Amino acid sequence: GRSDVELETIISPINRREAYDVREIIQRVMDIGSVMEVSKDFGLGHVCCYARLNGKPCGVIANDCTYHGGALTEAASRKVRRFMEICQTFSLPIVFFVDEPGFMVGKEAEKQGTIRAGTAAVLTASTLTVPTVT
Question: Can you give the three-state secondary structure of 25-73, one letter per residue?
Answer without folding.
Answer: HHHHHCCCCCCEEECCCCCCCEEEEEEEECCEEEEEEEECCCCHHHCEC
